[in-house]
Each structure stands twice: as C-alpha cells, then as structure tokens.
Amino acid sequence: MSKALTAGRQWRNASTRELDAAKRGRTRIVILGSGWAGYTLSRKLDPRRYQVLVISPRSYFVFTPLLASTAVGTLEFRNAVEPIRRRGATAVEFYQGWADKVDFSRRIVTVEENIMDTSQPKPHNTVDESVKKYVRGQMFDVSYDKLVVAVGCYSQTFGIPGVRENALFLKDVGDARKIRTRILECFEKAALPYVSEQLKSQLLHFAIVGGGPTGIEFSAELHDLIADDLAKLYPSLTQYTRITVYDVAPRVLSMFDSKLAEYAVESFFRAGIDIRTARHVEGLSRGVLDVTGTETERTNHGCLVLRTKEDGEVGVGACIWSTGLMKNPFLERFAEPIPHSTALVGDDAAISAVEKPGAQWKIREDGKTGRIITDNRLRIKVSLSDMPNPSPQFQTEAVLKDVFALGDCGTVENATLPATAQVANQEAVWLSKRFNKGDLETNAFSYNNLGVMAYIGGWKAIMQSGGDREVKGRTAWLLWRTAYMTMAVSLRNKVLIPIYW
Q1: Whole-Å CA distances, 388 to 335, 338, 391, 396, 459
Q2: At 89, is the pLDDT very low, low, confident or very high (cuts 50, 70, 90)?
Q3: What b/e sequence results for 221-258 when a residue is b if at least 16 CB atoms lie within 10 Å of its CB, and e otherwise?
Q4: pLDDT digits (tens, 9 = 90+) for 306-329
Q5: How far apart are CA 403 and CA 401, in angstroms?
Q6: 223, pLDDT greater than 90
C-alpha cells in the first residue's frame, strides 16, 4: 500500500456523496484559489442559491498588504490570515488540493490532494509549484455547475541563477515567518564575539529586489524595526546595518506620480536607505566576500553574494525578492486544446460550421503575460485553431460555458488591468452580484480605480487616488492604516490590528 502511494499518481475511489447530499438542488460553484478573488467571491455568494466549494492548496486567505508588517513583527501572523472553511448561514465547503486539469465537456475538475506527507523530505522553498509539490498526492474528481478560476500567479525569478534557492519571497505567511527568522538570525550571528567587522557588515546588509509598493513598504517596515527596536537590543551593531533597494526600472514606485515617488525616495535617503535603480541582477549565491578561510568555512556563515551587472558582487545577509509575476503552472494544463464544441457558448450553427476533423478550440492567452483572456463578463474566451483562412460567416471565437477567470490569472480583453488585489476584489464582488441577481447577460464589468498607497516609514505614507489626488506624509499614513483596518475581514482582526499597531 505504501509503495503504491509513493510510486506516483494514484486514483482513489473518492466519494463526494456527502458534498452532493448537501447540495440540495442548489447550483454548485467551484472556485479554484483562495486569494483575493476566490476568497471574496466565496463570501459574497448567496448560500441559498449556491453551494460554494473552494479548492486551494492552502486553507486560508492571506491579507497580502499586511505581510510586510508581519515579517518584522509589527503584527502577528494570525492578523493577516482568515480561514476558508466556514459553517452556519454562510457555509463554504473546502478541499485542500491542487486543481490538476478540467474536463469542460463533462464539467469535471480533477484535484490532487495537498496534505503534507511528513515522512517525505521538505522542499527548500515553497513559492514555486514545481518545488512545492515534492510528492504527488492522490487524485479525485469534483463536478461543477459553474467554475471560477482564480489561481493567481507565482513570483517571477526570470531564470536568474540562485534566486529561487537563496532569496526570500513575500507571498504568504510562511514567507513572512522565514524573513522574520532570518533577520533575527543575522543580528544574533553578528553579535557573537568572534565575528569580524567585515562579516558583520555583510550579515546586516539587507537587499530588497523590487521597487514596487511591496518592496518599498517592506524596506520601510524593516528600517522602523531596526531603528525603533533592534537598535535598543543590539546598540553596538547599528553602525553596520544597511538596507538597499534594487530595481531594474529607472525609478521606483512607477505606478505613482513622479512627485510622490520623489518624496518617497527623499524620505528613504534621509533614513539612510539606499535606492539603486536601473540595476540588473545576474545571480545570488551563498558565500562571503573578502573573508579568508576554506570554501566550507566561507559558506557556513549564512551570507549571500548578490551580483548585479552594474555594481558587481556585494555581500548581504538576506535578499528579499519582490519583483515580477509568473504564470501559474496550472494554466499550462488548463489551456490545453478543447476538442468538443459542447463546452462553448456562441452561435451553435456557426460553431458547428467551422468544425472539421482535427480542428480544436484553444483558450486565449495574453501573449506577453500569459494571463487568460476573458470577455467583459469575465467569461473565458476561446478561439479555433488549425483553421486557415476561415470564411467571414464562420465564428472562430466563443466563450466557455459557465467558466470564469478572475484576479491575476485573467485579464479582460482590450482592457489594461494591473495584477493587483484591488482589481481581483472588484471582479469578485461584481461577479457575485451578477450570480446572486441572475443578470450576467445584461451587465459588463468595469474597473473603478480607487488609487494606490504605500507606507514609506517613520509614520509617513504616500497615496494617490483614482482621481489623481495626492496625499503624503502623516495624513496619508493615517489614511493608509484606516483603510487596512476597515478592510480586515473578521471582527477579531478588526480589533487586534489597531491594538498591535
């Protein structure tokens, strides 16, 4: 039995009778993913009309804007998470697993369990799916009436050597916990009596790659932690601490007006945070610069060597990677050709007319980002492949029946929407209203830009509203904190977050 389980994929006679019995004539909506789009949608759907089933490798929702605060201890990890599974009037069913593939004609999702086998060696990094899935779980099928794909994206490492293995990411509470642990390890190591000044300088040099809101906010939170707390615990080490922000773009915070971005840069300069733009990272490896000793001794200090095209090599104690998004690997399997038109919505006669032996429908993807293209009702669009020079009366595009894409993994055709929590949340709220009211065919999604904000340290922030109104300094900081406190989901976190802050 144990050999069969570890040999590879195994199918079990999984029964969904309990799930089917609880359906009670309602429409089953299966949601793939528990991020901003999936979690928000699951909470907003009418449980009297819909049986909601969330399938995700993690059993909780992460309030991502608070991860930087949890990484430095300003907030506790529990303040940034909410459970998916719920009971009572707003019951949500949940299966912890990875969606493996979808049969659109049969309306079946094949799921692989994601329950950790503690007898197996754990992966070094859990950000990338290919590393996370170090042992294949058992498979089972789940039927759906409507399917919502909200699987999000992964951190993009651009194939740079050593980044995936050595960098720290900031996508989940597990990542934040690793960062907090590493910061304290660096200070404790530097405090040991035998550590040289050169090694202290490298251990206490923290590099942040990425000049967007996440990277800037983490840099600010880290500076506050060092200046307000760690300086009191390690007074002799403050002279060695450094924070450097690297970004490939010519300026950081490119989504803000240039004046607000300059204000943030000036604030960082006064705080001693170094910002280096137009920098191309070429590698990240383990090791120590300019320290004598054997290779084993050199690499046992836990330091890293960050190499950029412009500056060469520099020693760091930790590298936090916060730049770029890559397509979820599930979308590669999800976007496989669809041989049957029975799963499509469109002019049936026109669809049938163009079909011929060998012709297949393919899910449309954005050529640059790989995101799934949807119509303005968030339905996934498909096009006919292997059909050269179709006649004008032939329909070569359609949409999948009752299949939708939300959040970072999808994008509305002819609309430039950023891959942000704000977009995902608005899409989920809009779709839940259409489902609850039953008026999907008469409405179209429209994004309302509410603006963007970022904390820049020292009780200061910058904020730019959708109408290009600019706020900065202490006022923006108050608005920043107020916004996140009001966006907290549970009553517990609405109370605890202001207490910790």
Answers
A1: 21, 18, 9, 11, 61
A2: low
A3: bbbbbbbeebeeebeebeebbbbbbbbbeeebbeebee
A4: 999 999 999 999 999 999 889 999
A5: 6
A6: yes
State the Cα–Cα distance between residues 320 and 221, nearest whole angstrom. 13
The 3-class SS string of 125-172 reads CCCCHHHHCCCCCCEEEEECCEEEECCCEEECCCCCCCHHHHCEECCC
Q: Give 432-438 contacts, CB < 8 A, sequence gap 24+.
A: 432/40, 432/41, 432/44, 432/45, 433/44, 434/377, 435/29, 435/45, 435/46, 435/49, 435/50, 435/146, 436/44, 436/45, 436/46, 436/49
Render 369-438 in DSSP notation, one character per residue.
T-PEEE-TTSEEEEEEES--S--TTS--EEEEEEEEE-GGGEEETT----SSHHHHHHHHHHHHHHHHHT
**Residues whose CB is less than 8 angstroms from the CB of residue 160 and which lie 6 or more positions away in sequence, other chains included:** 281, 282, 283, 284
pLDDT tens digits, 12-25: 445 688 899 889 99
C-alpha closest to that of 400 among 431, 363, 434, 426: 363
Residue pLDDT, tens place only, 386-404: 555 555 555 678 899 899 9
Q: What is the pLDDT of residues 189-206, one digit of tens each?
A: 999 999 999 999 999 999
Neighbouring CB atoms inside 10 A of 79's CB total: 22
Asked if 104 and 113 touch (Cβ cutoff 8 Å), the reply is: no
Nearest-angstrom CA–CA distance, 249 and 246: 9
115, amino acid identity: I
pLDDT band at 486 (very low <50, low <70, confident <90, very high): confident
91-132 pLDDT, tens digit per residue, is 899 999 999 999 998 999 999 998 765 444 444 344 444 444
